[in-house]
Amino acid sequence: MRKFSRVLIKQNDRFLLLKETHGFWNFPGGKVEPNGFSENLVKRESFEEIGIVLHDISLF
């Protein structure tokens, strides 16, 4: 089974959504790597995928 994660990026009561193929809107995210999920993974992927440097992260 594939595992996916999404990142909810909120600033000033606004959330970042990305327009995906077929016109769907979604939170940034992707497939979870075999080595697991961590704050460092979220920071790295957010920068690589959308060019945003994240500082204050809460995992849930």
From TrEMBL:
<dbReference type="InterPro" id="IPR015797">
    <property type="entry name" value="NUDIX_hydrolase-like_dom_sf"/>
</dbReference>
<feature type="domain" description="Nudix hydrolase">
    <location>
        <begin position="7"/>
        <end position="58"/>
    </location>
</feature>
<dbReference type="InterPro" id="IPR000086">
    <property type="entry name" value="NUDIX_hydrolase_dom"/>
</dbReference>
<protein>
    <submittedName>
        <fullName>NUDIX domain-containing protein</fullName>
    </submittedName>
</protein>
<dbReference type="Pfam" id="PF00293">
    <property type="entry name" value="NUDIX"/>
</dbReference>
